[in-house]
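G.,

No rush on this.
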Amino acid sequence: MAGLVPLRSGAPKGKGHQVVAEGDDDAPPAARYAVQVGPYSSRHVANAARSRLAHRGYTAVLSGRALRIGSFSSRSRANRVAVRLRVTGYQPTIVALR
């Protein structure tokens, strides 16, 4: 296997040593965005809001006491959904997903 360097099994795991995954090191990971509504006063209230959103055709995921809608490839796509939610009385924010 030409060009490959074997890993040492006893490599130190201190601060100065970092394991790098294969791939394009220069390219940042693809950012994803979601629309978040909440936080609500309790998970029970958040679940009630989730049910109302489902009746409007949205699939929301409970995250703590907040709801997240979608996984969008750009902030502008997430903003389109956020605008529709604002019109119906919600106060959405756009969050970056990790």
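When you get to it, here's the other one too:
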Amino acid sequence: MSNPQAAEIRDQASRRVRRITAAAIAAATALTAAFAGLAAASTHTVKTVAKKTSTATKTVTAPEPSLTPSGSTATPSTPSEQQSSPAVTPSSEPPVAVTGGS
């Protein structure tokens, strides 16, 4: 012997809870998507890099190596035969390697 009015109130409350739960899930999903899009947009910025173009080219030729027989301890006798390495000069160009992002 249940009260029909009590059953109706219970059913209305159950429907109300279902509607509120569905609305909360939809709102949470929308907010998650919005924050994910915001986070993705803020971490992938576009960087503009200006390239310097050089019109002057320099041709470098390697000197002819002097060959000595295997096992020989002979050293060049004149200064013109001695090899000198060119001086290293620092470049004013920025480094080519770039780290970050994929």
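Residues 1-43 form one domain. The chain has a mean pLDDT of 78.

Enjoy the weekend,
O.
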